[in-house]
Amino acid sequence: MRITAAVCVVLGLLSVPAGAAESNYKAHGIAMHGDLKYGPDFTHFEYVNPDAPKGGELRRYGLGTFDSFNPFIIKGNPDDGSQSIYDTLMVGSADEPFSEYGLLAETVETPADRSWVIFTLRPQARWHDGQPITADDVIWTFETLRSKGRPEFRAYYAGVAGVEKVGERAVKFTFKPGENRELPLIIGQLVVLPKHYWQGKDFEATTLDPPLGSGPYKIDKFEPGRWSSYRRVPDYWGKDLPVNRGLHNVDVLRFDYYRDMTVALEALKAGAYDLRLEASSKDWATAYDVPAVRDGLLLKREFKNDRPAGMQGYAFNLRRPLFQDRRVREALGYAFDFEWANRTLFYGQYTRARSYFDNSELAANGVPQGAELQALEPFRAQLPAEVFTTEYQPPVTDGSGNLRDNLHKAAELFKAAGWTIDPSSKKLVNAQGEPFEFEILLFDPAYERVTLPYIKNLERLGVTARVRTVDPAQYKKRTDDFDFDMVINRWLQSLSPGNEQRSYWGSAYADQPGSPNVLGLKDPVVDALIEQIVAAPDRATLVARVHALDRVLQWGFYVVPQYYIAYDRIAYWDKFGLPAVIPSQGVQIEAWWVDPAKATALAQRHGGK
User: Fold this and answer.
1) Which of the 8 DSSP states describes residue 384?
2) What is the pLDDT of residue 260?
3) pLDDT of 607
4) Which one-letter DSSP state was computed for residue 447?
5) Are 79 and 63 a contacting pair, CB within 8 Å?
6) The domain spanning residue 124 has which CATH number?
7) Cα(334)–Cα(313) distance, rounded to whole angstroms?
8) Which of 71, 104, 373, 426 has fewest C-beta within 10 Å?
9) 471 plus 582 within the same structural domain
10) Residue 181 shares a structural domain with residue 262
11) How far apart are CA 153 and CA 15, in angstroms?
């Protein structure tokens, strides 16, 4: 998940470098807004066990297949663990809205206006082959990702004007004019790649040759498309840094690939792997009634979090003429009966999604006032009146399955948009007699049980919708190429939104294959609001401007909102130790460890699983 960056470094923790202007700050970390939680002498994050034992194996699952260890390009299906072999300049903490602390970077330096940033690398930073990590590696990585990487890299780094080496271990990024105070933190998230390894190789091609890394793990063994394993590097250069202490505790990370979620769940219950984040409410409620759970060997736990839930919903491809009328999109929303689905399919576990930032202070509620209204006012003539007068709420039913009133409202909207029922076919048609029909593309059969009732309701409106479920690889190819009518999509959000919103909703990325702008949204008002968010000078202003963007997206009816939960559902075999503290951003699996006593007891009781 991408997070955003920003403004103040803690004044009490900053030192002014010799010869620098008094407005320049240099420190071990940087915060988006306000102070850093952890001072320069901190030893570890509060949500880890700094004395956690090392050893054992953590087995996880993947869906579909993999054919590459290069996760930075649009081609191929990268292995799920392929980023774990690299380090970043800085790392974020999980108990602050958005703060970062040095990993490869020993210090971060910025002027008061954040118009540039200098990262000074740690002298002990090494690649797995023993060579030092250099400023040239940082520069080469940045330029390569921006020119040859996935489209979101170009969006994320769009504000960078130049990069240069300014010392033996120092790299300076200079930013384009304008307010964009999170850019130092954005660059701090840069994954650094080895220039000497990639020279002479085609970076834009998929590869199953294990790349050279610098991180806590390296690729150990694999069988293409079926499984991979990563082994902890015992002499990892950064293992004793405060940002790493208590993390990366297992010796071996293994990923086994399964055809779909159903097969993967059965494999978990059989003991084929160790841990599963459960996505299905039905499975959570009904599929774990097995001896291992009843005997306390396979544990089910719900971990609350305070991070934004983002938005999950049926996403319209606005590149299709069929969905370009706002009234049509609103009408299609009336056919989704969340209350019935939550009662009959989801066992009451979900909350209806209504905001793109649900489960946080960033969600727009009520009607715009104060700074939010100020952000929206210049665009009043270009926005629906409801943005200013009415709190957005998705359609509601009584949960009985009878949504006649909602379908009547949908029919009125279709009529206003020029769609009527053809008496002979009973189908919804336009003035040219063309039927209203489209395809909903899925990659997991589990979503069919949610989608088929939706399609039945659409049929009552004269709309013909079809489900097509394809394998994950084909799904990725089709969505990268925007070859779909409607998909179920989820936009993850952080507590500090910023530059990543450009790639989510920005006009410049609507037609770039592989872009996160799945909708194909091109709206100058949205573009302008994103830039206001990026330029927010403080937390209060950021929240108000995010509210404004959220409200415009809500009233654009760009998705049919589905649902969310404010906790993580995790099932795992009882062989792990967990830290006492769960941070605000949720459970951190990297902080778990294999408990030798538990692992031995589990093996004795469950045949070595």
Assistant:
1) -
2) 87
3) 65
4) G
5) no
6) 3.40.190.10
7) 13
8) 426
9) no
10) no
11) 32
